[in-house]
Amino acid sequence: MENKNMLMIPGPTPVPEAVLLAMAKAPIGHRTGAFSKVIAELTENLKWLHQTSGDVLMLTASGTGAMEAGIINFLSPGDRVLVGDNGKFGERWAKVAKAYGLNVDVIKAEWGKPLDPEAFTAKLTEDKEKAIKAVIITHSETSTGVLNDLESINKAVKDHGEALIIVDAVTSLGAYHIPIDEWGLDVVGSGSQKGYMIPPGLGFVSVSQKAWKAYETAKLPRFYLDLGKYKKATDEDSSPFTPPVNLMYGLQASLQMMRREGLAAIFARHQRLTKMTRAGMRALDLPLYAADSWASTAITAVAPTLVDAEKIRSTLNKKFDIAVAGGQDHLKGKIFRIGHLGFASERDILTVIAAIEATLIELGVEGVTPGAGVAAAASVMVQG
Ligand SMILES: *Cc1c(COP(=O)(O)O)cnc(C)c1O
């Protein structure tokens, strides 16, 4: 049906009407007093969302740009870095680090499995000369629905003392508790089209005091992504270059919505939606790609055995106007991924599960009890 599309992909995510209306305002000059007030409010609310009193900077970039900025501002050519790779995004940060001439040591785990914190501890304790300058990890690996154990890996980094921890929190920020100051996370990158409930186009990077120290001596080339420029401007409620003014009006509305809901409630909602989704898939005998103990709260990857995942995906699209994501690389056709990040509610989950039930029946999968998935999810919802 026309104009009835339901986005359940891990970005872009659905955008609330209040945000869309806020973005429909006529743009104003970004060097005006009125817009300075907007930047000041955004900065304050971003710090709240990041649970930090440190800097949170806004870039006109997607999440990859935010991460690239997070990597290149604090390191010098030839610096040794450890990169965790258990999916598409971990792989990408290793490529970025290599592109900039860093000396990259990759710690891998199988797709669908979490990174092993012990592997980081081992490399970091061996490094007596403190040659490792940064550890780069993806918290929620969107390609597989795996949530890596950031807290434990960060402890290993803190024991090392020298290395910075640089975190891709693109699908965990606003979906999972990440106490940046309490844990001492140095650099945390995220992007607007994920947990922020606004369209793509803005990237965010939080920067610790320790990272700013490293910035002073870091020698990798930087210009547009030079975070020092963003800090200087942000401290004056301004921006170094022309920012996406209308997107920032949207962000203003979405951060206000988030503050009204509260961080604890936002995290609890994401947990609940994750549990509902997983219960629904189990009740339909659809295997989950990542185990419960390391399930991302942003995305659930499902690995059907009796029918091609792409068939499920295209039927959901054609019959129900529901967009779920497919598998990437070798997982194409093997998994489909249900996004439940940002502006997502129980109603969305019940709907997608009901549509998956009908899809399985339509595709001739035997032994599907109509309503079984929805019943399981509803029962999780009621129990909380
Ligand atoms: C979406 C995403 C990114 C950023 O991708 P962009 O397309 O550049 O916004 C980075 N990391 C993870 C884990 C993501 O899900």
From TrEMBL:
Cofactors: pyridoxal 5'-phosphate
Short name of one Pfam family: Aminotran_5
Boundaries of every Aminotransferase class V domain copy: 28-328
Coiled-coil segments on the chain, per record: none
UniProt record similarity statement: Belongs to the class-V pyridoxal-phosphate-dependent aminotransferase family.
Function: Soluble hydrogenase catalyzes both production and consumption of hydrogen from suitable artificial electron donors or acceptors. This subunit catalyzes the tritium-exchange activity.
Quaternary state and interactors: Heterodimer of a large and a small subunit.
Protein known as: Tritium exchange subunit
Taxonomic placement: Bacteria, Bacillati, Cyanobacteriota, Cyanophyceae, Oscillatoriophycideae
